[in-house]
Amino acid sequence: MTYDIVVPTMGRPSLQRLLASLAGAQGPAPDRVLLVDDRPDRDAPLLPAGPPPGLAVELLAGRAAGPAAARNVGWRAASAQWVVFLDDDVEVEREWPAALAHDLAGLSTGTAASQGRIVVPLAQDRRPTDWERNVRGLEDAVWATADMAYRCSVLERLGGFDERFARAYREDADLALRALRAGWRLERGARSVVHEVRPAPWHVSVRLQEGNADDALMRALHGPRWRDEAQAPAGRLAANIATTATGAAGLAALASRRRGSALALGAAWASATLHFASRRVAPGPRTFEELGRMLATSALIPPAATLHRLRGEIAARGVVAAGGAAPEPLRTAPPGAVLLDRDGTLVVDVPYNGDPAKVRPMPGAPEAVDRLRRAGVKLAVISNQSGIGRGMLTEEQVAAVNARVEELFGALGPWMVCPHAPDAGCDCRKPKPGLVLGAAARLRVAPQHCAVIGDIGADVEAARAAGARGVLVPTPVTRAQEVRAAAEVAPDLGSAVDLLIGAQP
Question: How many helices (H) and strands (E) does the chain have?
Answer without folding.
Answer: 19, 13
